[in-house]
Structure to design on (171 residues):
């Protein structure tokens, strides 16, 4: 049998809420005064709080770069309707600073603007970028040639473990 419409809607909402609560990325909702209205499990855990504790905080408690005035300025920038991507620092419950990549949008709930944000810890991305830069910045006399549609030739020997391909040859 077919599930009646109201029950099917409630079931979809419950699945969606579960997905948001347990998403790998951090999810935040905050009001125009910076009060955190919602933070999912990933967001709370990344900062050393419970979800309930997060809802007693303001953006300024966790966002190292924002004070009430800069929050209002950010909301004005978001009013254009375009999402904003930024790198920032979040302060954990213990006081440590964690670099984050955030995407913020402004959503209107009736007349009330609510900010919606997704984020993730950027330390791993930054480590990977630094490792790649150090590999690519190998000895100056070693040119690097990368081709995705043919065998690699002329790649420096120190890159061999990272660029191993079935038909690749290394100088």
């Amino acid at each position: 049998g077919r599930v009646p419409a109201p029950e099917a809607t409630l079931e979809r909402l419950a699945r969606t809420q579960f997905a948001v609560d347990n998403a790998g990325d951090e999810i935040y909702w905050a009001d125009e005064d910076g009060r955190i209205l919602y933070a999912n499990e990933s967001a709370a855990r990344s900062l050393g709080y419970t979800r309930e504790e997060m809802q007693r905080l303001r953006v300024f408690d966790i966002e190292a770069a924002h004070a009430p005035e800069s929050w209002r300025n950010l909301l004005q920038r978001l009013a254009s309707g375009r999402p904003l991507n930024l790198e920032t620092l979040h302060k954990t419950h213990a006081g440590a600073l964690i670099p984050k990549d955030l995407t913020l949008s402004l959503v209107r709930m009736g007349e009330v603007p609510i900010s919606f944000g997704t984020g993730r810890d950027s330390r791993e991305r930054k480590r990977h970028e630094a490792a790649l830069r150090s590999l690519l910045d190998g000895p100056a006399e070693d040119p690097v040639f990368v081709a995705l549609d043919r065998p690699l030739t002329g790649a420096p020997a120190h890159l061999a473990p990272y660029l191993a391909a079935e038909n690749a040859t290394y100088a």
Q: What stands out?
A: The beta strands are 26-31, 36-39, 84-91, 97-109, 112-121. Residues 63 and 82 are 21 Å apart (CA to CA).
